[in-house]
C-alpha cells in the first residue's frame, strides 16, 4: 500500500481543524486535512452552531418577534401559522451550502490537500483512511498530527430514540413539522437555545433541568431575567427534575418523572450531554490518553500524552465553543511547529443565542462575593435604554461588576439586543484592566445598545462616590 507523507495531518474540518490547517500552511508546511463526513465544517456548520443560529434568526424574522413590539396590531398570532419546518429547512440548507463552498474554496486556494474518509491510527505517525463511497483505503504519515474530530450528542441506550419524535441536537433539525408541544431535557446552552427558539414559534415547551438553576454558570440575576422574558411565556421550566422514564407513544412522546408526574408532548428533545468523537480512531495505537470524562487529555499547549500529537476543540471538552476552538487550533499549530509557545487567553467571552441573547465576560456577582471582593454593581435596564425603546427590544439588562476600591471592571453580563456584539467592547476593557472611567469619559453613538456600558459605568460610579 502506497504511503503519502505530510508535515502536518489534521483530522476534522470544524473551526479548530480549519484554523490549524490555515496556520500550518501559512508556515509553508505540506498539510493534509481528513474529513469523514460528506460535508465540510464539522458539527459547527452542519448540526450545531450554524444551524441553530440560522434557525434562530429565521424565526425572529418570520415571526416578527421584535416588530411585534413596535406594531403589535399588525403581528397577530395567526402570522405564526405561515411558518413551516420546510421553510426553515430551506434557509438552513442555503446557509450550510454557502459555508461549504467558502471552506472548499479556502482549502483549495491555500493548497491544502483534503481526503474525505474515515481515519484510524495504525501507529503514532501513521493513519489508515477509508475513502467515502469507495473501497479504497490509503495510508498517510505525518510528522505532526492534530485531532479535531469534535463531539456528538449523547444517546443513552434506555432512551428510545427514533430521531423523528424522540430526537437529539442533530435530528431536531430534521423533524417534519413544527410541534404544538415539545419536551426538552437539559438546562444547558443547547437546551435553553432551542427552548426559546421553539417558544418564539408558538410551541408550548416544557424545559426540564437536572440541576437547580438554568444555565448555572451564568450570573444568577441574568438567568432570572431570561426566565422572566421567555418568548410569549411559552416555556414551563422545571428544575431538579430527578430521574425520569421516556416512552414513545401513539400520540408522540411521554416523560414520566420519579414523582409520578406524566408529561406528554408531540416531540421530545434529549439535550443532556455530548461525547467526544474518538471511538473510531483506534486511539490506543498512538498512545494518546483520555481523561475520566473520555475526552482527549492535553496540556496547556494542546499537546497530548504523545508529544507530536495535538488535540483541540470539542474532542478535549470544555469550553466547547466555536470561538475558542478557532483559537485552540491556531495555537496548537503554532506550538506544534515550534513557531512560538503560547497558551490560551485567560479572558474570553461567552455567547448564548437564546431569545433574548446573552453574553458575558469576566466573573459573576456570586464569584466576586466568594472571593471576598468589595464590589458595586452597575446596571442599565434595556427598558430605560433609548435604543431599546426605539427598536422594540426593551427586555434585558447590562450588569457590570466593579471593584469598589480600584474602580476596575471585573465582569460584564448582558441579556438583550446586541449582547454578543457589545461584549467585545467590554472584552477590550477587561484585557487592559480598565476602570469604569474608560466608559464614562468616552463618547458613544446615540442611540445604541453599546451605550448601556456607559450607563452601567455611571451607575457604579454613583455608588462608589456616595
Short description:
By secondary structure, the chain is an alpha/beta fold.
Description:
This protein has a five-stranded mixed beta barrel. Strands 7-14-8-9-10 form a five-stranded parallel beta sheet, covered by helices on one side. It contains 13 helices and 21 strands. The N and C termini lie far apart (78 Å). Helix 1 (15-25) packs parallel to helix 8 (322-336) and helix 3 (49-63) crosses helix 5. The longest helix has 25 residues, at 85-109. The chain is α/β, with parallel strands linked by helices and 466 residues long. It folds into three domains: 3-152 and 275-336, FAD/NAD(P)-binding domain; 166-272, FAD/NAD(P)-binding domain (3-Layer(bba) Sandwich), CATH 3.50.50; 356-464, Enolase-like, domain 1, CATH 3.30.390.30.
Task: Throw out a few tags for this protein.
13 helices, globular, Enolase-like, domain 1, alpha/beta, 3 domains, 5-stranded parallel beta sheet, FAD/NAD(P)-binding domain, 24% strand, 466 residues
Query: What is the number of strand segments?
Result: 21
Task: Provide the spatial order of strands within the biggest beta sheet.
Answer: 1-2-3-4-5
CATH topology of the largest domain: FAD/NAD(P)-binding domain
Whole-angstrom Rg: 24 Å
CATH architecture of the largest domain: 3-Layer(bba) Sandwich
Proportion of helical residues: 25-40%
- Describe the largest sheet: 5 strands, mixed, barrel
Beta strand %: 15-25%
Ends apart, CA distance between termini = 78 Å
Q: What would you call the structural class?
A: alpha/beta
Low-confidence stretches: none
CATH homologous superfamily grouping of the largest domain? FAD/NAD(P)-binding domain
Main CATH class of the largest domain = Alpha Beta
Q: How many discrete domains?
A: 3
What is the count of helical runs? 13
Provide mean pLDDT, rounded. Answer: 92
Globular, elongated, flat, extended or rod-shaped: what is the shape? globular
Amino acid at each position: 500500500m502506497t504511503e503519502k507523507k505530510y508535515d502536518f495531518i489534521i483530522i476534522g474540518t470544524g473551526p479548530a481543524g480549519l484554523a490549524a490547517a490555515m496556520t500550518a500552511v501559512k508556515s509553508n508546511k505540506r498539510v493534509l486535512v481528513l474529513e469523514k463526513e460528506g460535508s465540510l465544517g464539522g458539527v459547527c456548520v452542519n448540526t450545531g452552531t450554524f444551524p441553530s443560529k440560522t434557525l434562530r434568526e429565521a424565526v425572529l424574522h418570520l415571526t416578527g418577534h421584535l416588530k411585534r413590539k413596535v406594531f403589535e396590531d399588525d403581528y397577530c398570532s395567526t402570522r405564526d401559522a405561515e411558518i413551516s419546518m420546510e421553510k426553515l429547512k430551506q434557509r438552513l440548507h442555503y446557509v450550510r451550502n454557502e459555508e461549504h463552498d467558502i471552506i472548499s474554496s479556502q482549502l483549495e486556494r491555500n493548497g491544502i490537500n483534503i481526503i474525505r474518509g474515515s481515519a484510524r491510527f495504525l501507529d503514532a505517525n501513521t493513519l489508515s483512511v477509508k475513502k467515502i463511497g469507495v473501497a479504497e483505503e490509503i495510508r498517510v504519515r505525518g510528522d505532526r498530527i492534530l485531532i479535531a474530530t469534535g463531539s456528538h450528542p449523547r444517546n443513552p441506550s434506555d432512551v428510545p430514540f427514533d430521531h423523528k419524535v424522540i430526537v437529539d441536537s442533530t435530528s431536531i433539525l430534521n423533524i417534519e413539522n413544527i410541534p404544538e408541544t415539545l419536551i426538552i431535557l437539559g438546562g444547558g446552552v443547547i437546551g435553553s437555545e432551542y427552548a426559546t427558539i421553539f417558544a418564539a414559534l408558538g410551541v408550548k415547551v416544557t424545559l426540564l433541568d437536572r440541576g437547580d438553576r438554568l444555565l448555572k454558570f451564568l450570573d444568577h440575576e441574568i438567568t432570572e431575567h431570561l426566565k422572566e422574558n421567555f418568548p410569549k411565556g411559552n416555556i414551563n421550566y422545571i428544575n431538579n427534575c430527578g430521574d425520569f422514564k421516556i416512552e414513545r407513544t401513539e400520540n408522540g412522546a411521554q416523560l414520566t418523572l420519579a414523582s409520578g408526574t406524566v408529561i406528554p408532548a408531540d416531540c421530545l428533545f434529549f439535550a443532556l450531554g455530548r461525547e467526544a468523537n474518538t471511538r473510531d480512531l483506534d486511539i490506543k495505537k498512538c498512545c494518546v490518553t483520555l481523561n475520566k470524562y473520555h475526552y482527549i487529555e492535553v496540556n496547556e499547549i494542546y499537546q497530548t500524552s504523545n508529544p507530536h500529537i495535538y488535540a483541540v476543540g470539542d474532542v478535549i471538552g470544555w469550553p466547547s465553543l466555536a470561538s475558542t476552538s478557532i483559537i485552540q487550533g491556531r495555537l496548537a499549530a503554532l506550538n506544534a511547529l515550534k513557531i512560538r509557545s503560547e497558551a490560551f487567553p485567560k479572558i474570553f467571552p461567552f455567547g448564548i443565542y437564546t431569545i433574548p441573547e446573552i453574553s458575558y465576560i469576566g466573573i459573576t456577582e456570586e464569584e466576586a462575593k466568594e472571593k471576598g471582593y468589595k464590589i458595586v454593581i452597575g446596571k442599565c435596564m434595556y427598558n430605560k435604554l433609548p435604543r431599546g425603546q426605539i427598536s422594540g427590544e426593551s427586555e434585558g439588562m447590562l450588569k457590570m461588576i466593579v471593584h469598589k476600591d480600584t474602580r476596575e471592571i471585573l465582569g460584564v453580563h448582558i441579556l438583550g439586543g446586541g449582547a454578543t456584539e457589545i461584549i467585545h467592547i467590554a472584552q477590550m476593557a477587561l484585557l487592559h484592566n480598565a476602570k469604569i472611567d474608560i466608559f464614562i469619559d468616552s463618547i458613544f453613538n446615540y442611540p445604541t445598545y453599546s451605550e448601556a456600558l456607559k450607563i452601567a459605568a455611571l451607575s457604579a460610579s454613583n455608588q462608589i462616590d456616595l
